[in-house]
User: What shape does this take?
Amino acid sequence: MSATSLLKQLRKAVGKKHVLTDPASLLAYESDALTLFRSKPLAVVLPHSEKEVVACAQALHQAQVPWAARGAGTGLSGGAIVPPGGVVLALARMNRILHIDPEAQFARVEPGVVNAALGRAVARFGLRFAPDPASQTVSTLGGNLAENAGGPQCFLHGTTSNHVLSVRHVLADGKVEEWGTEMGVSRGLDLRGFFAGSEGTVGVAVAMDLKLIPTPESISTFLVGFDSVAKACQAVSAIVTTGLEPVALEVMDKTAIHAVENSVFRAGLPLDAGAVLLVELEGTESSVEKAAAATEKILKTFQPMSFENAQTPQARTALWKGRKGAGGALGRLAPDSYVMDGVVPRSKLAEVMEYVGEVQAESNLPVANLFHAGDGNIHPHFSYDGRDPKQCQQVELAGAKILRKCLELGGSITGEHGVGLEKQAFLLEQFSQQEIDLMERVRQVFNPQDLLNPGKGLPMKRGCAEAFHRHGGVA
Amino acid sequence: MTTTWQPQSEAQVSDCLKEWQAGDSSLLPCGNQNRLPRHFPYSAPEYWLSSAKLKKVLWVDSEDRTCEVQAGISLAELENQLAPHQLSLGVSGAHHDEGTLGGFFLAPDHSLLAHRFGFTRDQVLGGRWALADGTVISTGARVVKSVAGYDLTRLLLGSRGQLAFCISLILKLRPSKKLSWYQGPMDAPPPASPSAHFHFSLEDQIWFADEEDCAVPGFRPREEDLGKQALDSARQAFGKAEVRLHQLGFGHPSPNLAPGFKVRCHDLSSNTCAIGLDPTADLSASIADLQNQFPSALIVPETMAPAWLKEISFAMAPQARPFGPPLPVHG
Assistant: This one.
């Protein structure tokens, strides 16, 4: 089938104005939030319903054209772009909350619903959706599911996978499957759990049942300044080993603090501190009171430079706005920013952070650190200028070194951002060839021709890598 | 004649599988075999490959709250070994003492603590597995969060040993908490405490255990021993259930059932009932009858083979004969 007749079919499926082909409109779909990779699609299609997604999938399957689903494009691993000639299905128009069951505590939603919008919709029932990626005011639940997104609260509540009861999705050939049930009872293989984090290579979600949990009766948030990142990490370890269960344990270093304080996300962070630790506790009033006293006692043994307890919801919101806006705030430092997503066992946090410091010194590029300390999930943000090939090379080299260190310490190359195009080379350092081959064969069960989001999540076959233009950088 | 192999090391598991592949008999992985009649009522394989002698706790990392354990250990024994670290898996299955950890997760069983700790499968971070051709692979990672590659662990956990033999599992643990135990009558309003580990009704009493001391109207504090006895009875009731019924919004206390059915235990937090059937009645007719009474409920006969099993089984070890005998597929 020619490109012209494919476009004709796609226009028939979704309506003429919902197929974008003009260069200016396509520009926004060239990359996700990881701008290191760019690729211009043939067209962007904006379906409005499951029926339209199925019709598109069938046309694309028939035409043998590669395609991928995209939510808000906030992904950080190059997962939502297609090779040249491919088609992007942008699901932002499928943004209906189909059903909220406050008694059974679940909601059925379409993939284009924004994470925070679901939170707002269920708040009046005293419920919430726990996964809270920093992008939650923009990112979509379909994208959260595809990447198995995390966030600060994952320390207590777990990642997106743990909050998905069922997923209805369209396979590469247009068939529709529903995996799991709204009761979350899997009849056998946990295909629902397998779908989470499959980076859009297994199917495209068109509806999903999500678990909701009650809003806590009481919350307490501490903002503690330390003279160094190392000390903040030690405090985290001490809290965890004592058996306390905070909902979140977040650390930001001095560069991140200053970036936030110089931006619209200003949160009143202590400018003289080498690092701040955010600790949030939740539960009943009495349990939070007890845990807060125990936490305070531990934190004070590490001689903090500052110690603050955000008492009001407003104060807490400001703190979290600062933490979650930090990524955006860092954008002010340089034209481009490269965020890493390594994981180490929590006990190795101080060690890996020291190594990040060494790599930073070698590369001579500014780095800011903000990380989910409770999960051992680090996010060094390197600032660089993508127009300078040398800086691109340096930033990729720094990333490679840090991820290898994470593996050496018994960790993982990605905790919540996904492999995408970015980390494929490292998969073979985390898994054996046999294990990768096995994943590849499982992919072929669902997506045999590799037309659905080709080249993502698993190492690419020879020759495919060149399809994606990578600006500057080492291949 | 059925032979049961009980390998004691990863290498022995692999050797057993290679020996089996060289012949033409059928083989199926298993644990302690105490739920077999329910899972495989039709034909037994010629060989069982059992994890019964793989019961070591390989490591416990108390700072990271993770551990790796061989699949043949029982939940009770694992909890014993975690106790000195003040850690707990937070899972309480029907076959707590005699079942294996691998069996609990692979032929997924109901945990009475799901209210507090969520889906039990979420506690599994990864594992070591032997495929039908004897290849040993790892899935997941030893950290609490990893999205590298496909999450194959999820597929294997519900596979009833039909995709891979489970050698060991990496688990996410919780700090163990001291509990307060409470008992109340059936008409007492159900407690809605977020720190409750479970609440279930057993005969005409409701029990719950909470991390906090809480004064709940209609409930009275009970000694730990009595509470533990009640928990044991609830586990047994779930173990003896012919079918389990899951339904959203059951209401409270227990659902009204037509004669011929009896609620053995009702887990109020997960809305799951362990149901006993009239032993003289036909099983499938009883299930159909139950489904008529509760059209929106999920009634789980335990022998259901999942769709996709065959395709994935082939993908796991394409050069090998699959684990068998094959199960009939019910929808």
Notes: Chain A has a mean pLDDT of 92.
